[in-house]
Amino acid sequence: MGIKVSSLSFSYGGRPVLDDVSLSVPDGTLACVLGPNGVGKTTLFRCILGLERPDRGTVCVNGRDLATLSVVQRAREMAFVPQSHAQPFDYDVLDVVLMSASSRLGPLRSPGRREREAALAALERVGVAELAHRSFSQISGGERQLVLIARAIAQDARSIVMDEPTSALDFGNTARVMGVVRELADDGLAVVASTHQPDLAYLYADVVLALDEGRVRACGAPGEVVTAELLSELYGLDVEVTSLHGDRARACVPVRGLRRRGEKNGVPAGRGADVAAGEDRGGRESLT
Amino acid sequence: MRPAQPGQLRPTPSQQGRPRPGQEPAGQLRLGQEPTGQPRPTRSRLVMVLLALALVAAVLVSLALGRYPISPADAASMIVSRLTGLAGSFTDQQQALFFNVRLPRILLAAVVGASLSAAGAAFQGIFQNPLVSPDFLGASQGAALGACVAILAGATALGVSLSAFVVSMAAVGLVLLVSSRARGNRVLVTVLAGIMVKSLFEAGVSYTKLVADPSNELQAITFWLLGSFNGAKASDLALVAAPVAVGLVGLLAMRWRLNVLTMPDDEALSMGVDAPRVRALAVVFSALVTAASVAVSGLIGWVGLVVPHLARGLVGSDYRALLPTSTLLGATFLLVVDDIARLALTSEIPIGILTSVVGAPFFLWLIVRRGRR
């Protein structure tokens, strides 16, 4: 069933932020949302999570219209992974994961053995079981992000929404987190994540949505969206997209960065010239 | 890829998440936390049992202490005889002193300490701010104005307490009403509304001081504002019993939910906790116990701020352990301080002065110690 956004529009103080946005994320699918800062990615996610009420359009989660669901029902259908952040108070990692049990417990009940086991299993699944009794504030940013993903897993919802899960992470942690996210989709969950890195979206996602000024610029298979033409237009600068590993991956590089140091304009010399003239020129042509 | 090792995933502090208002990613104020060797639940349970025993011991010792000594054995036999009707070996004078003066005062000090500490711990969590104390929504200033006006009107002691309780709840209600009408960050708006309403009620208190008769009313007002358990009566206990019982039981019942409220609202909502509604409920419970406490004891500062931090140092931030620990610790703490207030000098020291003298340096020490480590 997954997440289905149908012609969603939202305005804030008379200024339209989202205009006729549609997106379908079936179970077992990872959708990545691309777009420059301030085009409404966060607003879109807030609408999907039910934190903002759209002016027009609907969001359906697992076949149920979000507008008709209570807070608890929403939490049972859909979990949220925020960007990792500092807390005013410190908790054990296990206690942070346990918080997601709220939607399954009555208003006066505390989590018991079953919830604790589910939390430990979720930590195990993202590969940080050994952190269970560490303090959440003293683990690294990458570990925190994994713990927050574990919290969403422990919430036991069929859909997960992630707000830039890798934006604050280093190269290795980014790969680890995206690997876990990919596995969740492979296990049958519907996952929506925003990212600033088109090459990550291409590598991991099944569906890529390019958002521009609150409108859908393109939405479809990664190969159709992560192209030089579209990215250049989306981010307002020349982007070279190069196919790698038999198009299993694509490198997205701003053209200005390809110039040799000190070179004013034109194609890089030396090895760069070979690359530009050779196989990769061909690769680029197939992508534009 | 190499296998991940602990310590390998370590971005620089500036990379760890986007900073939010009121939350500094590094070097944030987190007081009194010790690394613990034992798993938290076992340790917390031990701490709570020890604190409960300490409270019982403090009550028994306090019952015996005083200008007219009563031995713990006498105290126990008087309670037994009152409950069972059996005769005991003590004088009527002793009995009158014990039941009309000492017992109410000791119980009231413990109840008020427990209430202020529980409300302080709850407020710090639900407003996601470690520097919040139970009166920051105007409960104390409201109670002060209510008491001062009642004193000016020549009300009895009970009337003063009742008026303080009612106006205190009204002040908190006013803050919540304003903040529910305002747009923007709910927590920030509530804090701002609290500051404004507090200042409004403080102006009212100042005016009552100005027009009070300096020979008697002004003295009564000043003494009330300093806070004291001197003159505590059984009727005071009866007055606070219902609101404190409702508030404390309510807070303790929802203590695990308070954990979730320390997360940003968006996260709490997406985990199935209706943050604004649960927070409002917790505020009502906390306001009930605070207003009732302040109404019978006057302004006793610092307890609701310092005790929760001490408790956090003992058992961590998990409200399942923190709230009961804070409650027990607060009861013991205020009881001991009140013993000092009534016994240290020949004349009584207002307890509000003592808690400030003890609390402020202690809090500074906590901050400095945190900075050194």
List keywords for this structure.
heterodimer; A: 288 residues; alpha/beta; Rossmann fold; six-stranded mixed beta sheet; four-stranded antiparallel beta sheet; 11 helices; 34% helix; 25% strand; globular; disordered C terminus; B: 373 residues; mainly alpha; ABC transporter involved in vitamin B12 uptake, BtuC; 14 helices; 71% helix; 0% strand
Describe this structure in words.
The complex is a heterodimer of chains A (288) and B (373). Chain A has 288 residues and is an alpha/beta fold. Chain A has two domains: 3-226, Rossmann fold, CATH 3.40.50; 227-288, no CATH class. Helix content of chain A is 34%, strand content 25%. The longest helix of chain A has 16 residues, at 171-186. The radius of gyration of chain A is 21 Å and the shape is globular. Chain B has 14 helices and no strands. In chain B, helix 4 runs antiparallel to helix 7 (217-226), helix 4 (139-152) packs parallel to helix 11 and helix 5 packs antiparallel against helix 6. The model of chain B is unreliable at 1-37 (pLDDT under 50). Chain B has a single domain, classed as ABC transporter involved in vitamin B12 uptake, BtuC (Orthogonal Bundle), CATH 1.10.3470.10. Helix content of chain B is 71%, strand content 0%. At the A-B interface, helix 2, strand 6, helix 5 and helix 6 of A face helix 9 and helix 10 of B.
In CATH, the architecture of chain B is Orthogonal Bundle
- Which pair of chains forms the biggest interface, and how many residues does each contribute? A-B, 55 and 52 residues
Structural class of chain B: mainly alpha
Helix content of chain B: over 70%
Overall CATH class of chain B: Mainly Alpha
The helix content of chain A is 25-40%
DSSP helical segment count of chain B: 14
CATH architecture identity of the largest domain in chain A: 3-Layer(aba) Sandwich
- Please give the largest β-sheet of chain B: none
- Kindly estimate the percentage of residues of chain A that lie in beta strands according to DSSP: 15-25%
Number of strands of chain A: 12
Compute the CA-based radius of gyration of chain B.
22 Å
Number of helices of chain A: 11
CATH class of the largest domain in chain A: Alpha Beta
Largest sheet of chain A: 6 strands, mixed
Shape assignment of chain B:
globular
> What's the number of domains of chain A?
2
What structural class do the secondary elements of chain A suggest? alpha/beta
The CATH homologous superfamily of chain B is called: ABC transporter involved in vitamin B12 uptake, BtuC
